[in-house]
Specification:
By secondary structure, the protein is mainly alpha-helical. The protein is 56% helix and 7% strand. GO terms for molecular function: nucleic acid binding.
């Protein structure tokens, strides 16, 4: 029908207009962001897939880096970064986890890395750890169960006869599958003979 085709065309034109308007709005926001000197990154409101792709394109044209964060489609948002300095991997990982990134001074991060390297060296000098768990699992949960609770629980624990393994004496039929199946077949044959 021609009226349906006209309606579809009108909707497509309207959608195209909305995309163009959205792109213009994003271009304005990105240019404001570029001019804002004290702002290394900007987080945009959650938006749908098409709007995010438009924003990524605008950011790329402007010479910026952009990433999408958020798990589900409704809460996914775009963050735009100025390329100097680029966002570190730690920063991007924090956003992926949905955390705010705390830019600890680089000296602090460097100091922490050095400390970790020193600990590794100490462990290497000690040699390989003996096989088996490094500590008793009860030590890990001592704050929850206390020191003697586990021993008391171990002493009182007995197999519950009503649960789990059923003793052979309690089973009704101790035969394997073929004998009962043969019985069933024999009964069927008998029934068929009687019916005839």
């Amino acid at each position: 029908p021609p009226e349906q085709a006209a309606r579809v065309k009108k909707l497509q034109e309207q959608e195209k207009r909305q995309k163009v308007e959205f792109r213009k709005r994003m271009e304005q926001e990105v240019s404001q962001f570029i001019q804002a000197s004290g702002e290394p990154r900007r987080r945009f409101q959650p938006m749908n897939k098409i709007e995010r792709s438009i924003l990524h394109d605008v950011a790329e044209v402007a010479g910026l880096t952009s990433f999408s964060f958020g798990d589900d489609e409704d809460s996914r948002y775009v963050m735009v970064f100025k390329k100097e300095p680029p966002p570190s991997d730690e920063e991007l990982d924090a956003y992926r986890r949905g955390e705010e990134w705390d830019p600890a001074p680089p000296e602090e991060r460097r100091r922490l890395r050095e400390l970790a390297a020193q600990q590794e060296e100490v462990e290497l000098e000690r040699g390989p750890a003996p096989p088996g768990p490094p500590n008793d699992y009860k030590d890990k949960y001592r704050h929850l169960i206390g020191s003697d609770a586990a021993k008391a629980a171990a002493r009182t624990m007995e197999a519950n006869k009503a649960y789990g393994c059923v003793p052979v004496a309690n089973k009704r039929d101790t035969r394997s599958i073929p004998p009962p199946m043969n019985e069933i077949r024999a009964k069927k044959r008998l029934r068929q003979v009687e019916d005839e």
